[in-house]
Amino acid sequence: MRRNGRRLAIGMMVTLLLAAGLSLTGVQAYALDIDTPRNAGERVLALSGRFLQNEAERVAAVLRAVGPFDVVTFDSTGGSVLGAIEVGELLRREGLATRIESGRTCSSACLFAFAGGRHRQVERGGRVGVHRATLTGNEERIAAVVAAARSGDHGAVVRAIGRFEQASTAAATAQMQHLNDMGISVRLMALHVEVDHDAMHWLTPEELRSFAVVNALED
Questions:
Q1: Is 107 inside a domain boundary?
Q2: Is 216 among the domain residues?
Q3: How many domains does the chain have?
Q4: Residue 215, domain member (yes or no)
Q5: Which of 4, 53, 60, 188 would bridge 211 by S-S if both were Cys, CB 3.0 to 4.6 A apart?
Q6: Which long-range contacts (C-beta less than 8 Å, at least 24 apart) are formed by 198-201?
Q7: Using the 8-state DSSP alphabet, how is residue 134 labeled?
Q8: Domain residue limits at 25
Q9: d(Cα 91, Cα 181) in Å, to the nearest integer?
Q10: CATH code for the domain of 73
Q11: Mean per-residue pLDDT for 13-26?
Q12: Largest separation between any pair of C-alpha atoms in the chain
C-alpha cells in the first residue's frame, strides 16, 4: 500500500512538472547531444548540451544499440528538470558510472542526471553548479497570470498564482526525492533555493564530498 501511494505521489509530481515546463538555466531548447567517443580501455557515452523532456528515451535507445558502456560523461548547462531526472534514473537502473571530466561542466538540471551514477566522479578541473529552478521561461504560464491580472478577476489571479506555487512545490519535492534515492544528501537543496536562477553556485571539492555528490576517487 505504501509503495502504491508513493508511485501515485510521484505520478502527480511528474504531471505537475510537465504542466509547469519547469527548467533550470533559461528557456533555450537544444536537444541533448549523445556521442560515443573512443577512449583507450574504456567505453564512454558522452552527453552534452541541454536536457529536454523524454531524453531518457533517446539515451536508452543508444544503450540498446551500441552498449554496454563503462561510464557516462557530462558537459551540460541544464535544461528540463524532469528530463534530467529520468536520465539519472535510467543510468542507475543500468548500473553505470558517471563522470565530469576536467574542463567540463555539469550545472543546474544536469546534476540530476549525473546523480544517477552508481560511482560518481568529478575530475580536477571539472565543475558542478547549482541554483534555483525557474518558471519564468514558461510563456504560457506567464501569459495566464498577465491575462488574469488584466481581467480584474481577483479569483482568477489567486488561481493562477496557486498553480505556480503548486508546480514549484512539486518540483522541489521531485528533486529532493531523486537526490535521496540516488544517495545524495538532500541538504544540497538548501543551495538550490538560496541561489537565484540567473546566478550559479559552483560546488567546492569539500561540498562535493560533504553532500555525497561524488563517491569515487579523483584521478
A1: yes
A2: no
A3: 1
A4: no
A5: 188
A6: 198/131, 199/131, 200/107, 200/108, 200/129, 200/130, 200/131, 201/129, 201/130, 201/131
A7: B
A8: 2-210
A9: 13
A10: 3.90.226.10
A11: 44
A12: 66
